[in-house]
Amino acid sequence: MDIEDLAERILAGERRALARAITLVESGRADHRAQARALIERLHGHENVALRVGLSGTPGVGKSTFIEAFGMMLTGQGLKVAVLAVDPSSARSGGSILGDKTRMERLSRDRNAFIRPSPSQSHLGGVARRTREAIDLCEAAGFDVILIETVGVGQSETVVAEMSDLFLLLLAPAGGDELQGVKRGIMETADIILINMADGDLKATATRTCADYAGALRLLRKRAQDPEGFPKALTVSAVEENGLDRAWDEMTALSDWRREAGHFEARRAAQARYWFEAEVREGLLARLRREPVKGAMAALAHQVEDGEISAAAAAEELLETYLGEVPQV
């Protein structure tokens, strides 16, 4: 593969080249990983800075419907929108349905939009392992807004906040003990909570739910990267396309304030450090799956099974052998 040619085509905004590049970075083959690293390095330092928006929500809340309506509104304003949708993978077969693109039929036909579904595989946190690199590629391709949709809501799904500039939490009205369900982990990470389905018979319920979450947000500790009034809760209707423009106004206002206050660049710098450390950890784990460490690990595992050595002692022995003396924490 000609990496230089592929990079030039991505910088020119060619969508076929972008799709090919994302396939390349998602590959686990050693030669593909080397090419992917070369491509990312080649594109490093491009001038375009997109607004990266992470989106999570409870199952059935209408994330795809919201993204399509929201994306259509943005493209109608002349913005280029990329959607990176992560689908859960089967624990048995490892396969994914990857149906998000079919649920966004109108947006998938928009020439100013690009939709890419990816399998989560075994990666935790609601995103695929290479989503961060896919974001870099979309940004280099000239997109103005990048929407990252996670597989669903959960305590571990705050990882998407480490690759986005804004994090939206989409919730349904009258969700029962929903506030207890999402708890502080994801609530503390969200910048804006959107109560979807604020239409028809659920409109009044959505308004009450929004007020409940607004009250809950005021109880959270103030964050340095937030201006007065944030984080906040809003009502939207993806079906009737109500409240989308206000949500966008709040998002741009928050983003603009963070840029002026220096939080935007500082946050991206902190994210770069986070993903560097994550790559180091992943690299160390990958080496455990190779020989001779793999064989030594299997032999020690048998000793642990037979009760000849404790798990902690076996782990320390393995790490000292291949990483040197491990300092006690």
Task: Describe what you observe in this structure.
With about 325 residues, this protein is α/β, with parallel strands linked by helices. It has a seven-stranded parallel β-sheet, with helices on both faces. It is about 50% helix and about 10% strand. The longest helix is centred in the C-terminal third of the chain and has 26 residues. The protein contains 13 helices and seven strands. Helix 1 crosses helix 2.
Layout of SSEs?
Blueprint: H1 3-11, H2 15-26, H3 30-43, E1 51-57, H4 63-76, E2 81-87, H5 100-103, H6 105-108, E3 113-119, H7 131-140, E4 145-149, E5 166-171, H8 178-187, E6 192-195, H9 203-218, E7 232-235, H10 244-261, H11 263-288, H12 293-305, H13 311-323
Parallel strand pairs: 1-4, 1-5, 2-3, 2-4, 5-6, 6-7
Helix pairs in contact: 1-2, 1-3, 2-3, 2-7, 12-13
